[in-house]
Amino acid sequence: MGVAEIRGLCKEYPAFKLRDVSFDLNSGRISGFIGRNGAGKTTTIKSILNLVHPSDGEIRYFGLPLLGNEAEIKKRIGYSTGAVNYYPRKKLRDVAAVTRSFYPNWDEAAYEEYLKLFRLDEQKSPSELSEGMKVKCNLLLALSHGAEILILDEPTSGLDPFSRDELTDIFLMLKERGTAVLFSTHITSDLEKCADDIIYIREGRMIAASTVEAFRGYYSNYGDTLEAIMLRLEREARYA
Fold first, then answer.
1. Which run of H or E residues covers position 57?
2. What's the structural domain count of the chain?
3. CATH of the domain at 57
């Protein structure tokens, strides 16, 4: 049993449909979520967090349905959209103080550790930070309350190669601590370094949800990279 179980997830908009999406997230494993822009990655992530209301499907965390247990479940989940978009003019220390009040399991030592690791200045406001540093700021808050599941939408967007490498090292560290990590990305080279599982979506439909090894075994031609596999599959679908 996964720490998160998604079954038959659907979400309908006038111009887009997410249809029958199912996958698990497991403790101590990193899942890379891939697909083209508009494929449904962000809709899926928002749906499994109830930030948008799914049309159908079952979402369970830690064996509990999300509906009816949302407040308790979200105390055990870290979520980041990639950039801080709230309290843009408050100092980071004040943003952290507000965030701290929502989490009884806030870990001040972890907060200080990531603050130094990310080289963030508590005296600055998010509006004063570069896009890459805003990503780190949001991750700092998500990582500082002992989350058992970390759900990240394009966390490496806007980061330089060194910072992306630093972040994937953090994912590997969290994996060793037993955290389940889901992150969507277009930078498949990041997945080559750290992902255990691949979730691949196209036009709102699941194409694959498997281990990286099984994904490669089924789709790879002579040792293709994940990027080469995805590009080939997208081209084949376009001209099918």
1. strand 56-61
2. 1
3. 3.40.50.300
The SS3 call for residue 192 is helix
Please name the residue that has the structure tokens 């449904």: 40
Radius of gyration of the chain (CA): 18
The phi, psi pair for 158, rounded to 5°, reads: 90, -5
pLDDT tens readout for residues 159-212: 888 888 888 998 998 899 899 999 999 888 899 999 999 999 999 999 999 999
Contacts of 155 (CB under 8 A, 6+ apart): 80, 82, 135, 139, 167, 183, 185
In a domain, 176, yes or no: no
The secondary structure element, H or E, covering residue 94 is: helix 92-100
- Predicted TM-score of the model (pTM): 0.90
Tell me the residue range of the domain where 58 lies.
Answer: 1-70+150-155+188-240
